[in-house]
Each structure stands twice: as C-alpha cells, then as structure tokens.
C-alpha cells in the first residue's frame, strides 16, 4: 500500500501578491489581465466569494466584483517561491512529481526520515512551507494519486484531508461528479444528462457503457469510480505539449467571433508555459466543426514560442491556412509542443508576420 501526498498551494499567485503587498490583504485580488482585456490567472479567496475564478475573462470578473483589484503577474517571483517549496518536498522524498508551480504529488511510502505516518509528514511539510514562505498549503493524503488529488481540494484553504483505504469507496460514492479529478465541465454536463450525478451513479455503469459514451476515457472513469489508480509518482515526468481549448454553446462563424476566443485561449496557454518555465517550437490550431468533424493545422519554427501575442498571431494565421473554415465552429483549441524547459529555452520569436 503506497502513501501518496498531494500538496496544493492556496490561491498561489494571489497569495504571493497579498503577502508582498500588505495593502492587498483581505481584499478581492485578481492576478493577470487588465480592465480592458485578458484572462484572470489567479483569484484570491476574497475574490472567489464574488464568483471570480482563474481562466475567467477580466471583463466578466469585473462585472462580478466591481471592487476587484487587478495586479500584473510576476512569474519570476512565483517561480522563485515554487523552488523554495520544492526544496521542502525534497527533504522528505525524491519521488516528487510537480504538476505546476503550485502543486505536486509526493510518494512518502519510503521517506528520508523513516516516518510511518503520511499525515504527519504532510503536516510537517505544511508547517515548513508556512515558516519559510509565509504561505499556506492544503494537503490530501491517501494510497493513490487520484484520491490524494481530490482530497487536497476538499478542505481549503490551509486544510488537510486523509482518505484511509477503508474509507475510500464511501468517499468516492458520495463525491459529486464535477469534483472528480479528470472530469471537466463539458464531460460533467454530459454525465448529468445521462443521470450520473455522483460517484455512486458512475460506479453503477459498466465499463462497456462508459466507453460507449466517453471512448477510452470510459475505462479511467470506471476505475476511479472504484477508487482505483495505479499510476506511479513520476519525478522526471516531462509534459510534451501544453494546450487549452473551449467548446461554445453557440457555433462561431466569423473571424470577429473567433479572434476574441483565440486570444483567451492563447493567454491560458501562455500562462501555463510561463508557470512551467517552458516554450515550444510547434503551434497547433484545433478546429471542431458543428458536425463534430475535427481538423488540426500546425506550424513549426526554428525559434521558441512563449508569449500570448505571438501564440495568438500564429493561431490567427493558421485560421486562414490553407483557408478560413467553411463550416461553423463549435470548438477552438491551441497547443504548443516540441517543448524546451528552463535554461534549454532559446530566443522568443518576434511577430506579427
């Protein structure tokens, strides 16, 4: 039986800003974007009370919270704090799998202090992070990655949740379907249309039924409904691509409709590239038409791509290459691949064309 911890920093970017600027403490803060345009990269808990969340367009966030304070991102600061946090993890185990700057899995089955209790290790890690960064973290502790990940989000901020083996099945069965890690908004909506609202509903479906409705993902859903997850904590796991996509309630037909959506997607991709200290040479535009047919268009460069404006310029060019879509669009996506990390990055492309 493995002992897995998932550590998730609390409103990381926003909390760093509130830590460094006392005038922001206790106030609704959004990191990233501007009043004119952009996407919220992170929101403080005070802002979340108004319904402001990450990946929300700034214009909508300001309508929800007129007193919202918007501050620019400081990726170099977040990266430095993330390195401090990683140093704390590595005191206990070398089996650390970062998911982003602000969260990671740790396998502490065999740890450097010979401690038997994973919960005790998680509490020590939380305490050391607080002492050294003045930031809080939430922790999930269980015997696999899926349960640890879900557990870390159930008692935020500054919480800890432990799911023991004899508690796992009851925990999963009672879990609302939208709280399952790996089930996004679109999939959750489809599941609810099928009458699947909780883990118990999901467990009642056969694997063949789930695969019929959700393809290969159906097997994953079948397993997590039974609290099964055999994935190992992989300390050297490197993402091969970074992307984002949006499905629209109403099909898009004109360039004027598509470009604002592409900008939002490009900003989300650029945000992920920055927080992972990555850049890439290949940009792919994904188009799903109203009839569910799929088309992808790619372009590869000698120099690396990283910033929002450059990614948007390339995606806009791909929208017309070889020709502007002849059918209405229900989904747009952008992916950057052929990645380099950290010091391996080379010069950033300069556009427009």
From TrEMBL:
Which Enzyme Commission number(s) are listed?
A: 2.7.7.7
Q: Which residue range or ranges hold the UmuC domain?
A: 4-184
**What cofactor does this chain's UniProt record say it requires?**
Mg(2+)
Catalytic residues? 103
Q: Cofactor: bound how, per the entry note?
A: Binds 2 magnesium ions per subunit.
Reactions the enzyme catalyzes: DNA(n) + a 2'-deoxyribonucleoside 5'-triphosphate = DNA(n+1) + diphosphate
Entry superkingdom: Bacteria
Assigned keywords, A-Z = Cytoplasm, DNA damage, DNA repair, DNA replication, DNA-binding, DNA-directed DNA polymerase, Magnesium, Metal-binding, Mutator protein, Nucleotidyltransferase, Transferase
Residue numbers for the site described as Substrate discrimination? 13
Q: Binding positions for Mg(2+)?
A: 8, 102
Which compartment or compartments is the protein found in? Cytoplasm
Against PANTHER family, the record matches this protein to:
DNA POLYMERASE KAPPA, DNA REPAIR POLYMERASE UMUC / TRANSFERASE FAMILY MEMBER
Summarizing the function annotation, the protein's role is: Poorly processive, error-prone DNA polymerase involved in untargeted mutagenesis. Copies undamaged DNA at stalled replication forks, which arise in vivo from mismatched or misaligned primer ends. These misaligned primers can be extended by PolIV. Exhibits no 3'-5' exonuclease (proofreading) activity. May be involved in translesional synthesis, in conjunction with the beta clamp from PolIII.
Quaternary state and interactors: Monomer.
The record's family statement is:
Belongs to the DNA polymerase type-Y family.
Name recorded for this polypeptide = DNA polymerase IV
Q: Which organism is it from?
A: Nibribacter koreensis
Q: What gene is this protein a product of? A: dinB_2
